[in-house]
Amino acid sequence: MASLASETQNADENSARRREHVAIEGKRILVTGGTTGIGRATVAQLVEEGARVLTFGRDQANLDEALAYARNGKGWCGGITADISTREGVDAVFAAVDEQLGGLDILVACAALGAQPLHEMEEDDWRYVVDTNLIGYLASARGAIKRMEQQGGGHLVFVSSISVEIKAEGESVYSATKAGIQAFAETLRKEIAEKKIRVSVVQPGSVSTPMQECSDDNKRQAVANDEMLEADEIAEAILFVLTRSERTDVVNLRIEPRLQKTS
C-alpha cells in the first residue's frame, strides 16, 4: 500500500509539473530571419501552437512564402522586409513589434548568413556577416529586453551553431560570430535573470537549409543517411525550450544528426 501511495504521489507531482509548462498560445513573439530555413520552420510551428508571431527578412518573395506557409495555424503571423545588420532595420522591426504585437514575450533570433574563410572574403562582405550574425543578435536582444522589462519578464532564444565547438576548417568568420553569440548569451543571462527574463541558446549541427551549399538532392540524401537534420526538427527543439516552466532556463541545447561530421 505504501508503494502504491508513493507512486500515486509521484504521478500527481509529475502532472503538476507538466501543468507548469509555459503555453505558447497567445504569446507575442518576434522571430528574426524567419523567411528561410530554421526561422521559417519555427514561425510555422509557433503559429500552429497559437502564438502571435512577427518576422522579417531582406527579400519580399521569401517573406511572402514564409507567411503563406505559416498561416494554416491557429495563431497569427505578420512580417516586414528589413535588414537586421543596420540600425534602420532594427528600428523598423521594433516599430512593427510595438504596432502589430503591442509588446513582446519571446524573441527567437535566427537571422544569420554563412561565410567563407576570412582571407577569401572581401572586406565589406565579412563585415556584413559580422553585422548580421552578431551585431544583429545584440541589437535584437536589446530591443527585446527594453520591452520585456516593462512587462515583468520574457524569454530570449538565440540560435547558434555547433561550429562554436568543432571549429571546422573554412568557417573562421562564421564560427567567430557564433562564438560571440554563445559568450554574449551566457553572460547576458546573469545580467538579466533578476528581471525574470530567461536566456537560452540552441546549437544545431548540420541542417537542411538554404545556407548549405550542396544541392537539394544532396541534402535529401544526407537527411536519409542521418547526416543532416530537417529545419522542423530544430524548430521542435526551440518549442521545447520555450515551453519549460518559468523557473527553468535551458542554457544550452545542442542538437545534431546521429552521424554529424565534425571535421
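The record above closes out task 2.4. Task 2.5 opens with a second protein, given below.
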Amino acid sequence: MPCRFPSCTSIRGNRLQTRTLLDALEDGRFDAAFGGARRDEERARAKERVFSFRDEFGQWEPRAQRPEPWALYNGRIRRGEQIRVFPLSNWTELDVWNYIALEQLELPSIYFAHEREVLERDGMLIAVSEFVAPQDGEAAQTLRVRYRTVGDLTVTGAVRSQASDVAAVIREVRSSEISERGETRADDRTSEAAMEDRKREGYF
C-alpha cells in the first residue's frame, strides 16, 4: 500500500530522528537519557522497563531487558552502553491529566480544543500546512480539534474535541477507547510492529 504522507521516510523508520538522537548521546557521552514514554501509549512501549537497557549501538532488545522486582533498578552498564529512563512508564494518559489538574500546570493551547484547518487522511485529521496539502479525493475543512500528543506536524493527527479546559479533557480521556498514539500518530500505523522496529534501531 503506497504511503500517502509527505514524510514517508520518517514514517517507515523515523531514521532521521533516531540517528540524531544516537549522535547526540554519543557526542555527549551520556550514560542515560530520560524520556516521558508511558506503557499505555503503544504495544511496544508496554514491553519497556523503567530502566530500558540499550546496547553499544543504542539498540533495544526486549529479551535483553532486566527484571525490575519491587521497583529495584539495575543501572550497571559497560562503556558505550546506555540506559533510557522512563519515570512515567506506569502512568496512564489519565494520570498525567489528573496531575496537571492537581498542580494547576499551564499547557500550550494546542492541547485544548481550537479551530483548525485539517484534512482527513487514512482515518486521521492532519493539519493543512506548507508541508501537507489536499491530494486527490481529499478536501480541507475547518473543525474544532485538539491534540493528544505533539510531534511531527505531517504525521501527528488531531482529534475532534470540544474540551477547552483541563476538566473537560479529563472527561474526554476517561471516555476514550483508543490509545493516544493509536489515534494520532501515522508513523505507528504502518505496521503493528512499527514502533518496536524503530525502538530496535535506537528510537526512544
